[in-house]
Write a structure and sequence with these properties.
The chain is about 40% helix and about 15% strand. The protein has about 425 residues and is α/β, with parallel strands linked by helices. Bound molecules: pyridoxal-5'-phosphate. Pyridoxal-5'-phosphate binds near residues 91, 214 and 238.
């Protein structure tokens, strides 16, 4: 409420590279980057060319699209997954992955971890509350009936005790859904926990689903799976994949993905789709424009190789180090973390606790955000993504802008 008069939406007009211009003609260095989509910056020429080329061919929906097989093969090649299908948003992909896991295992319950975000499907919008002395899963927000989340267990991320809870529910669990490094706590990168989780879910025949919406193609060409050396049963992708167009992918082992189409078969022999399928549909699935953009993205990433991600990760790491050194030298209670080219304020102190956005520090961060906007920097409340379009000058400008904004807040007695 005290900041109400500072709230206004930024109405964008155009964007290019690391920049966005608003309707008032203000130019910003942008690190929102389409909420993690634009790893090559805004409006890269090669994606624009692919879209224009496809526009000339038309938009054919409802039949098979020539590009789907090619894009699926590229995803398999980069991620090591066996089969792929396409939907339009991350939310849909996660929802479908859960349905596939439930269909294959014939079980209902799933585990998700506190602090994770998996989109706005009712079935994952949950939190835990202590009710009458007992921990219980409850809807995250209004409009979600308790009956829709009855089968969701919310456990502590990175905590070995969670593995014990999984063991205790082994006969009811269809899947464990993981955001490998949570956007809400980037410093928690629990490789050992994930490896143990992989081992346990394999032993218990529970599907391990990696939600790679943010980590996919960002931390490494093979995503968090390649980074942590873990093979999930199903993984979901989006954001970077579509180069700005709406597309998501559900990829996984054939044993799971065959639930979509019944499995491989050929003409002229006795083969047929043997697997009983679940329901999967969507008018816009395999949209030719999205697939054209996705092919351009994947071919570009493939041509550039792992060094693209390595360099971006290194530059982000240096940026975060510089800011943290500054915060420390100024005795400021702010700490930044990063995972690949995603950076964000992280909870100070105990790294297994997720960020508490309602804390008093959030007020200072909110004010800081407005100073940053006023000085021409667009961020997501202090967090953001670097792209290959961000120059060293952009990064230095961001660091200086943060320092100047903090100095302004201090001189006004607000920090
Ligand atoms: C990890 C993760 N999963 C799922 C989603 C949902 O994706 P979408 O917004 O495309 O539905 C997001 C979105 O930010 C995400 O970060």
């Amino acid at each position: 409420m005290p900041l109400k008069e500072l709230c206004y939406p930024i109405i964008t007009k155009k964007s290019l590279g690391s920049r966005i211009w608003d309707v008032d003609g203000n130019e910003y260095v942008d690190v929102v980057m389409g909420l993690g989509i634009n790893i090559f910056g805004h409006n890269p020429l090669f994606i624009k060319a692919a879209l224009l080329e496809q526009l000339e061919e038309g938009i054919q929906i409802g039949l098979q699209t020539e590009l789907a097989g090619e894009v699926a093969e590229l995803i398999c090649e980069m991620t090591g997954m066996e089969r792929v299908t396409f939907s339009n948003t991350g939310t849909e992909a996660v929802m479908t992955a859960i349905r596939i896991a439930r269909a294959v295992t014939n079980r209902s319950k799933i585990v998700i971890f506190s602090g994770s975000y998996h989109g706005h499907f009712d079935g994952t919008l949950v939190k835990v509350r202590k009710l009458e002395g007992k921990l219980q899963t409850v809807p995250l927000t209004c409009g979600i009936p308790q009956s829709l989340i009855e089968d969701v267990l919310v456990l502590d991320y990175g905590n070995p005790e969670s593995l014990e809870v999984i063991k205790a529910h082994k006969n009811e669990l269809a899947a464990v859904l993981v955001e490998p490094v949570q956007d809400s706590n980037l410093n928690l990168q629990p490789q050992e926990f994930l490896q143990q989780l992989r081992q346990l879910t394999t032993e218990l025949d529970i599907a391990l689903i990696f939600d790679e919406m943010i980590t996919g193609f960002r931390i490494h060409p093979g995503g968090a799976q390649a980074w942590f050396g873990i093979k999930a049963d199903i993984a979901t992708y989006g954001k970077i994949l579509g180069g700005g167009m709406p597309i998501s992918a559900i990829a996984g082992k054939a044993a799971y993905m065959d639930k979509i189409d019944g499995g491989m078969w050929n003409y002229g022999d006795s083969s047929f789709p043997k697997v009983k399928t679940t329901f999967f549909a969507g008018t816009y699935c395999k949209h030719p424009l999205s697939l054209a953009a996705a092919r351009a993205v994947l071919e570009h990433l493939k041509a550039q190789g792992e060094s693209l991600q390595r360099q971006l990760n290194q530059r982000t790491s240096q940026f975060v180090q510089t800011l943290n050194d500054y915060f420390e030298s100024e005795n400021l209670p702010i700490k930044m973390g990063h995972f690949g080219s995603l950076f964000a304020p992280v909870p100070a102190g105990n790294s297994t606790q997720s960020k508490d956005v309602s804390s008093s520090g959030a007020m200072g961060l909110n004010l800081l955000s407005y100073h940053l906007i006023e000085k021409g920097l667009l961020s997501r409340g202090g967090s953001g993504f670097f792209s290959t379009a961000h120059t060293d000058e952009d990064i230095n400008y961001i660091i200086q802008t943060v320092k100047d904004s903090i100095s302004d807040l201090r001189s006004g007695g607000l920090l």
